[in-house]
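Annual report, structural modelling task.

Input specification for the adenosine monophosphate complex:
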Amino acid sequence: MRITASQYHTPMEDTIFDRIIAGEMDADIVYEDDAVVAFRDISPQAPIHVLVIPRNRMQSIAEAPEHDAETIGRFMQGVALAARKLEVEENGYRVVLNTGRDALQTVPYVHAHIIAGRKLGWPPG
Ligand code: AMP
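The model returned the following structure:
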């Protein structure tokens, strides 16, 4: 019997990103398909700052080994497709997956930040 990703999910409170996925909360959506939704960050850190979230819920990328490769692969493809839609491929962009406390992850629903539109510093703080 195939185990579906939803069977791995631990019970948790609905986050703002669950509400955006459910259409219960407004978001400035820039790209979506059957696997992901991408929307502008409410507090942008660069001229282009978009969050990409999978429709298949997980708390952080640390849970990726417990999910099927299709879910993880479609999430990563969704990041690239959103970046393509934003036309940032030529100049480049940064993808950030803040994971857990030390990385200052504030929303416990996995999200990839696409940050672009200016020269970015390295290393990050
Ligand atoms: P992180 O610190 O990696 O968990 O990032 C969470 C991000 O979500 C932050 O950059 C916030 O500005 C952003 N954020 C929080 N609420 C919303 C919202 N309602 N719509 C869009 N972005 C949001």
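The two ends are 45 Å apart (CA to CA).
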